[in-house]
Amino acid sequence: MENEAIMMIDSNKTHLTWRQRLSFRRDLGNRLNVLRAAVMGANDGIISTAGIVMGVAGANMSATALMLAGVSAMISGALSMGGGEYMSVSAQRDLQNAIVQKEEAALRDDKTGSFQAMYRHYLDKGYAAENAAAMAHTIVDNNDIATILAEKFQIKLDKLLNPWLAAGADFFAFILGALLPLLCITLIPNPYKVGVTMAAVVVCLFGTGYTSAKLSQVPARKGALRNMVVGMLTMVVGFIIGSLIG
């Protein structure tokens, strides 16, 4: 019995170590997702604003018209991106809240069912029946809803999704990206503004494409080149349309 107790304690220690490592990986994954979203928000700001200001430049409009078009594109695009991100994350947050409420009700009203669910959960993870039962009993007896949510759904009560934070990050990332073509097309004098703006945008798109590909663990050079081509096509098409209209 003493040896079995020691083995059970060691198993719990190993389990805790594994959970701590998993928690670190999840936190790291969340940070990478936020960083990836910010990079893509800035990338969208660069491409969409560059296409609009290049169209206005192709129409040979005044510097004031260029500035107004660029600022309008930047603000409307940022609001659109931020609003879309808010709606998306809010839906995920609502789902998390629904899961939390369901599990809290089950733990309060049906402890036997909660125990069976956690017991099967640990058995499915490969734990011995005795250890699985001991851990499930400890969690249910202590009303440890946090562990239930973390183990079964990878939800942390202190780290639920924040739609306002996500929306704000996307909004400001878009604005930062949009500032590059806007400042280039308005501050650089003729006849260099179009060429310099296109060159600056292409260089930055290589950087955002490369970073996004690295974060997504796909071939970085291919992703960067693809991003540059999309940006170039956007600017060329915008300039041609502006030239035809103007």
Keywords summarizing the entry:
246 residues, mainly alpha, 8 helices, elongated, disordered N terminus, membrane, Ccc1_fam, Vacuolar iron transporter-like protein, transmembrane helix
Domain module tally: 1
E-strand count:
0
The separation of the N and C termini measures 89 Å
Radius of gyration from the alpha-carbon trace, in angstroms: 26 Å
Give the percentage of residues in beta strands.
Answer: under 5%
Oligomerization state of this entry? single chain
Given the structure, what is the number of helices?
Answer: 8
Broad structural category? mainly alpha
Describe the global form: elongated
- pLDDT below 50 for ≥5 consecutive residues: which ranges? 1-22
Helix and strand run: HHHHHHHH
Helix content: over 70%
Summed over residues and divided by their number, the pLDDT gives a mean of 82
Biggest β-sheet strands, sense, barrel: none
List the helices and strands and how they pair.
Blueprint: H1 2-58, H2 63-109, H3 111-124, H4 129-141, H5 145-153, H6 163-187, H7 193-216, H8 220-245
